[in-house]
Amino acid sequence: MAPARLRVGIVSAGRVGTALGEALASAGHQIVALTARSPHSLHRAATRLPQARVLDLPGVVAEAQLLLLAVPDTALPGVIDQVAAANPRPGTIVAHTAGAHGVEILEPLAELGLITLALHPAMTFVGTTDDTARLASSCFGITSADEIGDAIAASLVLETGGTPVRIAEADRTLYHAALAHGANNLIALITDAVAALDAAIAGPDGLGRATATVDGPDAGVAARILGPLVRASLENVLEMGPSALTGPVARDDAATVRRHLAALSALPDHDLVTGYRALSARAVAQSGAGRDLRELLEVCS
């Protein structure tokens, strides 16, 4: 027997809410109403969820059997208060998508008889239909108050094509920190690496970029150099763990690391060497490198 089809209301039609709305609609649920204020949200709603009516928050609450709160973490408490004030029907399922929170933050709604869930897709969203396709290969951190909530949360995630992973209420912050460290801080790392490589390609006179490719100037050459290397490194560490480490730290090559630090220190952006030093120190700790490297990075820190 097919699972029950739900009338879904979304607060709001941002990147996450729109993608989840499309995925739930593909699973047969009815996206009946949503909130949308900005021009971007209104455009997303019109083009990707045209079946849904754009209403104010009380109107969405009144229409929904499943209420999806897809708002930033900082906005969530205020939205919960607004939902509570809108006289939601007992038995309504309410789920938020904030990574750092479980269901404790939804307690004001649980006290009104709502079924509360935390459904966080471990994915980055760019605001296109690619977001919806990526949900099918994503894991979701799910948290609920009881086994019934677990079953509902897992069912909803499976219907989107995703994989539910249960996270205890007490561990939601740690879960979110791990994702932010692995994904958001990766962006900072790669941005620094591109900047340093850009400087190396340009050379001391800044003319190297014009001869970087046979076709002439190419501002994206640093990203093209790093791309295959970074993708291979990511695949290797996910498969092999810390043993995937290569390079001067893995070789216990303190002399090369010392030259790296000097070269990066000479760049106008002095924070580049700070990031390199911090991550090299972590790599040293993970790899068990020798005393020379440890002392070099301790002296420089």
TrEMBL record:
Residues 2-121 form the Putative oxidoreductase/dehydrogenase Rossmann-like domain. This is Oxidoreductase. It comes from Gordonia phthalatica. It holds the Pfam family Rossmann-like. Residues 139-282 form the DUF2520 domain. The lineage of its organism: Bacteria, Bacillati, Actinomycetota, Actinomycetes, Mycobacteriales. It comes from the Bacteria. PANTHER family: CONSERVED HYPOTHETICAL ALANINE AND LEUCINE RICH PROTEIN.
